Amino acid sequence: MKKTTSVLLTSTCFGLLATSPIAEAISFFDPIDGQLDMGEYLAENAYGFLPVPIVITEPAVGYGLGFTGVFLHESDEQREKRRKLAETSLDGGAQLLTPAITAVGGFATENGTWMGFAGHRRTWAQDTVRYLGGVGYGDFNMTFYPQSTLPGLDSVFNGQGLDFEITGGGMLNHLQYRIIDAPLFVGVKQLYFVTDQKIANSPIADKLLQTLTNTSPTTSGLGLTLEWDNRNNFFSPTQGYNYKAEFLWYNDAIGSDYEYEQLDVEGINYWELADDWSLALRGQYKSLYTDERFLPPASYPDIELRGVARNRYQGDETLSVESQLTYQWNLN
């Protein structure tokens, strides 16, 4: 059973769990390939707990740390079936995702950004139905490069970034249904956020913002999703494809203070090149449609690339492509 995971995550979890009484009865090394592996711990604990550290290197918020407690839920029958699959498969890690997972955690970064969150993922009928939901609250300090045609604001923006402090919370609900026996899912997605926004680095711009716009907006969206997912591992895939498309409507009829539509299309391909090497290619297209003259800064599509600060490049349409070469370092 070979589980692909980061050395940091594996080492941290091993160190925390090895001190517990259960470590005396459960091996943390795979009996097939002898590698360090959390598989037996996960397979033997229907209501197990997995501590997951969060390391943040996002340029938009600076370096940061966090922690997530992941709780795994399943029945005795489900656990036994999953354990047998894990113990008889070299790539057993792909079989270790329980039908229900709950995560609770938080993080903070060097620029004062912080967030607390809780989420739940569950599947039914042998992964025919999937549900993902979550809530969160936090304070985000990020620089935006606003897209605006409001009178008086253009001269203040002048192409320069404005430091926004956005405080508030929101929730996500996503329900998916598998089409026949294919790895194709159709779904319904709902987003809801309530925030307070202010500009921290320009009193003039903040005063104009307070006068001309709603600085405590409610953003509510509802839409359809389509996903093709045949990855060989949910957490760290090395083979397969994951293509996603979603179209969300934000409208006054569902409680949104602003009306617009968003399209987000993303595709990721994974190829296993050798025993310890894999290649991934990702592409993403985003677009926004609206008659509003001004929207909350985070509403506009942006470029999502590693090493590039979020929201640095925004517009009505964005397109990004990136590749990743991964080497799996196994601890003997």
TrEMBL record:
Swiss-Prot/TrEMBL keywords: Membrane, Signal, Transmembrane, Transmembrane helix
Residue ranges crossing the lipid bilayer per the database entry: 49-72
Signal peptide annotation: 1-25
Pfam assignment, any one: Omp85
GO cellular component term, pick one: outer membrane
Keyword Glycoprotein: no
Gene3D superfamilies in UniProt: membrane protein fhac: a member of the omp85/tpsb transporter family
Main location: membrane
Compartment list: Membrane
Bacterial surface antigen (D15) domain residues: 200-286
Protein name: BamA/TamA family outer membrane protein
